[in-house]
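Long-time lurker. I teach an intro course on protein structure, and each term I like to show students one example going from raw sequence to a predicted 3D structure in token notation. This year I'd like something fresh instead of my usual example. Would anyone be willing to generate the tokens for the chain below so I can use it in lecture? Attribution to the forum is fine with me.
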Amino acid sequence: MRVFLRKIFLLTAIVICGLVFDSCAMIFSVSRPDLSQKEYTALIINDKKAAQCYVEETRVGMIILDAIFWPALLVDGLGGYYTYYSYSPAFCSNNSVNSAEPVSVAEKKWDVDNIATNTQKNKKIVSSRPVFVAVLESVSGGILKYQENQFITNVLREEAVKALSSEINATIMTRENIREMLPPEKSLEDCEGACIVETGKNISADYVSQARVGTFGKNLTISVELYKTSNNKLVSSFNTKAQDIDALEEKIRENASGMFADIVREELNR
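-- Reply from a regular --
Happy to contribute to a lecture. Here you go:
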């Protein structure tokens, strides 16, 4: 009996080890600018127009490698790891021309000249995949009202849009987007501290930020951190204080744009 159990245990261990080390599609992520199935789902939720620039493909090479140990085919197949989405500008809706609207020769010439002038300048930015930026709900430990916490979050989100909209292919995730992408057992209100980066990964965000409000003497204080989820790197942060929430809003607007602008520098230097 012991020998039989030992054989079962050994066989189980071999299967588990095989799944861990042979599930190639699970281990090796999709390379930029292509998107994994989870990332593409997030893109559809946040920006349906940008999602039209991607075409569904199959990772044939990974299927062949996984075939060496067949259970890996089942694991990766059910997990959707063989499907990825290839960036194809030809499918972008904003590249299409509406034939019902006539375009003058002058307009055509301007478009050609404009593309020629900016292609080289923005080559690295245009070719990059969408960058997802999430601003989690602000936390204050009861110092601020619920509506005030939400307002601070909205201000940070607004400043992120201003800082990134014209610089890189960034998508600022809304409160509803984030809730939809979160696992069922998690909530936005539970996320703070070390949970920030973990939450960012759960919602497929490339960068995640959160504000913490406290007090110092008679003043309100705020600490805002911005992390890159792929390597847990603290990209940027700022700390400031103000006498009341109105003055705190002004301080946030003064500092937030510069913090989110660091995402541009991080993306261009990768």
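Some talking points for your students: The first strand starts at residue 35 and ends at 36. Residues 93-127 have pLDDT under 50 and may be disordered.
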